[in-house]
Amino acid sequence: QVKLVESGGGLVQPGGSLTLSCEASGFIITEYYMNWYRQVPGKERDLIASIFIDGGNTVYADPVEGRFTASVDSAKNTLYLQMNSLKPEDTAVYYCNRGRFWGQGTQVTVSS
Questions:
Q1: Beta carbons within 8 Å of 10's beta carbon, 6+ residues apart
Q2: Residue 69: its pLDDT value, please?
Q3: CA–CA distance from 57 to each of 37, 52, 97 (Å)?
Q4: Cα–Cα distance, 82 to 48 (Å, whole number)
Q5: What is the C-alpha to C-alpha distance for residues 66 and 43, in angstroms, rounded to an integer?
Q6: How far apart are the two ends of the chain, measured CA to CA in Å?
Q7: Which of 59, 75, 67 is nearest to 23 (CA)?
Q8: Which of 1, 34, 36, 72 gives 49 a disulfide partner, CB atoms 3.0 to 4.6 angstroms apart?
Q9: Is residue 94 scored above 80 in pLDDT?
Q10: CB atoms within 10 A of CB 28
């Protein structure tokens, strides 16, 4: 069955970097649009990046454009989100997504 497992969250200082991973199983990750979302308490879950490797297409939300990079390691069937120049407003739970399937989320906290 489809399973998505995120990891890599943690506490980082403003201006720092962090890389999130999403290990996928039950399907071939390069055959689907894969998404990263984030959510803060009391707010809706926001789409921040979509990647479709076989189509060579990656799209980012304005708040993260130029700072975040989504990528896929097809050999590991794993999705990544490289986050640079992190800001306190990037603090959220980050989720990996494919259609109706979601990971459990990983907390990212940006604070000094």
A1: 18, 107, 108, 109
A2: 95
A3: 17, 5, 16
A4: 12
A5: 24
A6: 40
A7: 75
A8: 36
A9: yes
A10: 10
111 has a pLDDT exceeding 80 = yes
Separation of alpha carbons 88 and 109, rounded Å: 7
Q: How far is Cα of residue 91 from the mean position of the Cα atoms in its chain?
A: 13
Contact 57, 9 (CB under 8 A): no
Token representation of residue 84: 């640079």
Integer CA distances (angstroms), 86 to 17, 51, 54, in order: 6, 21, 29
* Cβ atoms of 49 and 57 closer than 8 Å: no
Both tokens of 82, joined, read 């490289």
pLDDT tens-digit map of 61-70: 999 999 999 9
Phi, then psi, of 53 in degrees rounded to 5: -60, -45
SS3 of 20-73: the string is EEEEEECCCHHHCCEEEEEECCCCCCEEEEEEEHHHCEEEECCCCCCCEEEEEE
